[in-house]
Amino acid sequence: MDKLELVKRNTEEILTEKALEDLLKKKKEISAYLGIATTGPFHMGYFVPLGKMLDFDSAGIKNIILIANIHAALDDLKCSWDELDKRAEYYKKCIELGLPWNRKPKFVTGSDFQLKKEYIFDALKLSTLSTVKRATRAASEVTRMQNPKVSELIYPVFQALDEEYLKADIQLGGTDQRHILAYAREYLPKVGYKSRVEIMTPLITSLKGAGTKMSASIPGSSIKIYESEDSVKKKINDAYCPIGEIKSNPVIQLYQHLIFPIRKKIKIERPKKFGGDVSIKDIDEFKKLYSAKKLHPLDVKNKLSKELITIFSKARNYFDKNKDLLKSLGKDFQ
Questions:
Q1: Which residue of 41, 177, 246, 264 is surrounded by the most CB atoms within 10 Å?
Q2: Residue 11, preceding bond cis, omega within 30 degrees?
Q3: For residue 142, which phi and psi values (nearest 5 degrees)?
C-alpha cells in the first residue's frame, strides 16, 4: 500500500484529496495533529482517530496530540476551570498507554499555549471576521449548544488557530468536526495563515447499537480503557453484533479501526466442529467472511475481548495503581 492509500485508509472525508496528494508529493516532513477535548471519561470511541494516527506513523507523518483542556471548558464547562491540569494528566496517560505506539506522538496541552498574548490576539482578529451565524454553524455538532454560551462560539476560532500554532500540515478529526474543519480552511487565510488538509474519520456506533449514544451515563454503551477484564468481556459479549451484518455494527468497527491497524492480521479461534481456527489477512477478508455468515458473532466477540484486554493492559495496570486520580475526577471516571 502506497503512502497516499495508507493515509486515506479508514477515513470518511478529506478536505481536499487534491491538497493531500500535493502535500505528500511536495513536503518531506509532514505533521498531523488530533485535538481531544478533556470532556469526560476516556472511552473506546477515541480510538478511531487514534488508530488512524498509527497509519500516519507508518506513512512517516509526525503525530501531534493536543490535550484540549481549554476547549473542554469552553464547551459549556464540560471541564471546570479548576480541573484543567488534572484532566489533562488523565487524558495524556490514557492515550500514551492505550496504544502500542511505534513512535510516541508529541503531546501538547492547550493551556500551555492558548492563553499566550499572541494566540489571544489572533483569536480576537479571527473573531472580528466571523459572524455569529458562521461560528454557530461551525460549533453546532461539537459543543453542547443547548443554551449557547459565548464560549461555545469561541471554540471553533481556537480550533482553527491550533493548526497554525501547532505548525501542523493536517488536522485529523471525526465527521462531527466537519463544520469546524471547513471553517478553519476558509478563515485561516483571512488572517494570513495557510489552509491545511482536513481528514475525517467516522464515528463509532455505541455498543448498544445505532440510536443509542456512547456515553458514560448509559451503562454498557462504551468501554473505558482501564476497565477490568471481566467488564470488557461482559460488555463485548452483550454488544450489538447481528450475524452477517456489517453496517452500524460496533464490533466490526472496532476490528476495522483498532484491531487490524495494530495487528495487521488475526486468527479467530474456534472448535473444529465449527470449522476450526481461521487466519484473516485484512479487514476486507474479515468483512467478506462475516457478511457470508462464515464467522459467528460469539467467536468474533471472544477474539475482540482478548485483543482489547491485551492492548489496554498498560493503561489498566497504571490506573489500578493510581485509583486516587480516578476518584478525584468523579464517579463517572471510575
A1: 177
A2: no
A3: -110, -50
Identify the structural domains of the chain with CATH numbers, from first to last. 3-201 (3.40.50.620), 229-323 (1.10.240.10)
Concatenating the DSSP letter of every residue in 286-321 gives HHHHHHTT-S-HHHHHHHHHHHHHHHTHHHHHHHHH
Q: Please, what's the b/e burial string for 133-144 (b: 16 or more CB within 10 A of its CB; e: otherwise)?
A: ebbbebbeebbe
pLDDT tens for the chain, residues 1 to 334: 799 999 999 999 999 999 999 999 999 999 999 999 999 999 888 999 999 999 999 999 999 999 999 999 999 999 999 999 999 999 999 999 999 999 999 999 999 999 999 999 999 999 999 999 999 999 988 888 888 899 999 999 999 999 999 999 999 999 999 999 999 999 999 999 999 999 999 988 999 998 777 776 677 889 999 999 999 999 999 999 999 999 999 999 999 999 999 998 999 999 888 889 999 999 999 999 999 999 999 999 999 999 999 999 999 999 999 999 999 999 889 8
